[in-house]
């Protein structure tokens, strides 16, 4: 993979002329995959999704950027991933004005109907950004459906999940709806401290459950669409999984991406390995995060995402060479800011992009016009739902073979969804709360099992002993 992120906060996607120039630039650079920002802040730079169009004065009226990128890029043999901000809901300084936007209906002022992620004191701004809480079942369903609407309506080659995590700082998840659900599922009372390990683990599982739902639904609709995530690499790299569990990625923003690759949930892991070689330790950190990601890759492809905007083109060239030599793909962030001089020193984007192109492609540069024709791994899996009169989340579900061999174990999300991937073909029985249902996996893909209605159990008081 030789990729380029194209964000929606500057030129590149707003008009037909910008899209044409961007695709030409990518082709001239030797890019084979574009990660095009599609869902930005619960709104879309597209016309056929379940979320409103982005409010942007520079976005040409009636123009569908995603459709035009797909048309032009596919004609050049370039793949297109719809890059989506999963939990991003809005920005207080630049709100979406559509009355159907999620923050108009379920924003901070919506009381019990609010889906906004909060700190213990009720505050909700991270800078100017507002996030949705993955622990609220309705919010999780909304996020999944918004992405699936893009999968259904566009001939994309992949999806990339971004902001699939909690905000920085660890003190999040304290919406009243999420807290009530946590107490009900765990039996714990009161309000957990931010350092409570049970609370932290529960929140981390909400993120993984959301990934699982989105990925399995996507594979059910279109098995050949790549599933990808842009993943966090904060601080010093771990040597192994035990070390990863001490990282900020795992303990602060609650993103357990090694579990996603090893479970087979994502086909492509793109590290946001935004290091600066001129900063002490960063050169080694960059290389060792790449090494760790390869060690836990499962079936997933791995690409090093590098911060073009923080580095000179020569440093970006060096980072790319090291990533490719280690066996990873490469993705640059971003088209709008192709070098530190564009980002900080007033250099124009066209000039910065040309300097980057020469550095990466000329005089033995690492970027050549390499086609990326690899298909995503073949998966066989199950998606189902448990329906109950009580809370539907946190119920343990097992997948077993016809002979009773345990194939996998998971828990339901807040909407009752469960799923398994990379199961063998044949009979697969699911068991939950003493009930079971058996179906057949006859071909690769994701089978949708029928909803399982849990039968209520009447609690009979024990008989009093006779005197």
UniProtKB/TrEMBL annotation:
Entry keywords, A to Z: Hydrolase, Signal
Domain of life: Bacteria
The Glycosyl hydrolase-like domain, residue ranges: 1-278
InterPro entries linked to this entry: Divisome_Glycosyl_Hydrolase (IPR052177), GH (IPR017853), GHL10 (IPR003790), Ig-like_fold (IPR013783)
GO molecular function, one term: hydrolase activity
Pfam families xref list: GHL10
PANTHER family: GLYCOSYL HYDROLASE DIGH
Protein name: Glycoside hydrolase family 10 protein
Species whose genome carries this gene: Deinococcus psychrotolerans
Lineage start: Bacteria, Thermotogati, Deinococcota, Deinococci, Deinococcales
């Amino acid at each position: 993979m030789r990729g380029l992120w194209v964000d929606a906060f500057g030129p590149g996607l707003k008009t037909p002329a910008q899209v044409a120039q961007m695709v030409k630039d990518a082709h001239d650079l030797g890019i084979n995959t574009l990660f095009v920002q599609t869902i930005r802040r619960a709104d879309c730079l597209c016309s056929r999704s379940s979320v409103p169009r982005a409010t942007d004065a520079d976005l040409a009226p009636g123009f569908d950027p995603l459709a035009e990128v797909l048309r032009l890029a596919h004609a050049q043999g370039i793949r297109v991933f719809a890059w989506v901000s999963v939990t991003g809901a809005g920005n207080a300084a630049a709100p979406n004005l559509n009355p159907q936007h999620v923050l108009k209906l379920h924003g901070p002022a919506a009381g019990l109907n609010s889906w906004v992620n909060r700190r213990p004191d009720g505050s909700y701004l991270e800078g100017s950004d507002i996030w949705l809480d993955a622990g609220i079942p309705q919010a999780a369903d909304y996020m999944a459906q918004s992405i699936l609407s893009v999968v259904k309506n566009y001939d994309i080659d992949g999806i990339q999940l971004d902001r699939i995590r909690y905000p920085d700082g660890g003190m999040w998840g304290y919406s009243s709806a999420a807290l009530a659900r946590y107490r009900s599922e765990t039996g714990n009372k009161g309000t957990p401290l931010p350092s409570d390990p049970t609370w932290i683990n529960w929140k981390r599982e909400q993120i993984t459950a959301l990934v699982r739902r989105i990925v399995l639904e996507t594979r059910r609709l279109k098995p050949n669409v790549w599933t990808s995530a842009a993943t966090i690499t904060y601080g010093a790299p771990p040597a192994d999984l035990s070390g990863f569990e001490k990282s900020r990625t795992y303990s602060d923003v609650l993103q357990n991406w090694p579990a996603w690759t090893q479970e087979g949930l994502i086909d492509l892991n793109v590290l946001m390995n935004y290091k600066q070689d001129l900063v002490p330790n960063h050169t080694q950190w960059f290389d060792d995060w790449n090494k760790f990601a390869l060690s836990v890759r499962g079936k997933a492809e791995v690409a090093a995402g590098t911060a073009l905007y923080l580095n000179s083109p020569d440093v970006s060239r060096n980072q790319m060479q090291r990533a490719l030599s280690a066996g990873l793909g490469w993705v640059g962030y971003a088209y709008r800011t192709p070098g530190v001089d564009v980002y900080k020193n007033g250099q124009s984007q066209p000039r910065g992009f040309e300097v980057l192109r020469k550095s990466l492609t000329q005089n033995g540069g690492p970027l050549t016009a390499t086609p990326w024709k690899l298909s995503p791994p073949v998966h066989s899996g199950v998606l189902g739902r448990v329906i109950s009169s009580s809370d539907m989340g946190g119920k343990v579900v097992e997948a077993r073979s016809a002979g009773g061999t345990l194939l996998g174990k998971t828990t339901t999300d807040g909407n009752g969804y469960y799923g398994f991937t990379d199961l063998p073909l044949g009979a697969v029985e699911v068991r939950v709360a003493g009930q079971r249902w058996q179906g057949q996996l006859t071909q690769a893909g994701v089978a949708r099992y029928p909803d399982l209605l849990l039968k209520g159990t009447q609690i009979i008081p024990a008989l009093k002993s006779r005197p």
